[in-house]
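Consider the tokenized backbone below.
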């Protein structure tokens, strides 16, 4: 028998609710007549986001102390639960906006399924506790959003938005993945807390390989948060994507990226705070200036 880690299914409840909603929406896309797909898909997605919202609140209430679960790959704490509440709330509002927007019926059930899948990926991302689950969650919701941006194939601007987001988003993911590889090469660890321990035990503070990896991780997360100067994709994508998708990306994606950035920097690189605090401050100032002036 292969030893398996204990799975805390309660910690994964928000993601499982949204994955279930995705499955039901996809079944509706295949089995139901076209005139019924919009209502069924919207109902499935709304119930999924509502269930994720409730479960996230319950996790917040019943997790006074942070704990690592599922072989230390996921962090169950109040920070992640609060982020999941915001993501689920944004998703629920997006379902309402999309239903009122009366989008094209051609792929409407698939739209709601992808929306639920993106929400599940974000809920998983904000609880990531090592570099592997970080990248898995990042690609999970990113791939869903690539398709959502280009789902209205009749609009040239929508296809352009999807293509630009795919290319630049893939570049950001590649930078983050390469940075993670450099950090793993320097420390030999994947878990955030073990990276911190290895930096202290091996006296790696200021190590060139580690600092380069940290810088690339910040750049990769900056692309996902569309923080200046990594925001060049944002105006075209937001303009070309369907309005509900733009709203969901503007709210939920930023929440997931910023919470994950906070978790990674505080838990994995506390010894390098003298470097990343300056970098984050510069990025924040640049984002404020660019966002207000441009």
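A designed sequence for it:
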């Amino acid at each position: 028998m292969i030893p398996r880690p204990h799975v805390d299914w309660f910690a994964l409840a928000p993601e499982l609710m949204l994955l279930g909603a995705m499955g039901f929406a996809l079944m509706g896309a295949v089995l139901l007549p076209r005139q019924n797909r919009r209502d069924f898909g919207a109902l499935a997605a709304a119930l999924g986001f509502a269930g994720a919202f409730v479960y996230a609140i319950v996790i917040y209430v019943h997790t006074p102390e942070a704990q690592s679960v599922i072989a230390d790959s996921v962090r169950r704490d109040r920070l992640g639960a609060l982020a999941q509440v915001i993501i689920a709330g944004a998703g629920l509002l997006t379902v309402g906006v999309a239903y009122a927007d009366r989008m094209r019926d051609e792929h409407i059930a698939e739209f709601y399924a992808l929306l639920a899948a993106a929400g599940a990926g974000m809920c998983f991302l904000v609880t990531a506790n090592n570099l592997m689950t970080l990248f898995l969650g990042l690609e999970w919701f990113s791939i869903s959003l690539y398709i959502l941006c280009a789902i209205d194939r009749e609009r040239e601007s929508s296809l352009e938005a999807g293509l630009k987001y795919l290319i630049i988003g893939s570049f950001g993911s590649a930078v983050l993945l390469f940075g993670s590889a450099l950090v793993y090469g320097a420390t030999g660890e994947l878990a955030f807390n073990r990276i911190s321990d290895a930096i202290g035990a091996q006296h790696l503070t200021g190590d060139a390989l580690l600092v380069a990896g940290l810088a690339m991780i910040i750049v990769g997360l900056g692309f996902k948060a569309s923080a200046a100067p990594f925001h060049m994709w944002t105006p075209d994508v937001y303009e070309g994507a369907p309005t509900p998708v733009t709203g969901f990306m503007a709210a939920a994606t930023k929440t997931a990226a910023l919470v994950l950035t906070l978790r990674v920097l505080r838990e994995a690189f506390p010894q390098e705070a003298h470097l990343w605090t300056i970098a984050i401050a510069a990025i924040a100032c640049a984002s404020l200036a660019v966002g207000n002036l441009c």
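The CA atoms of residues 183 and 211 lie 8 Å apart.
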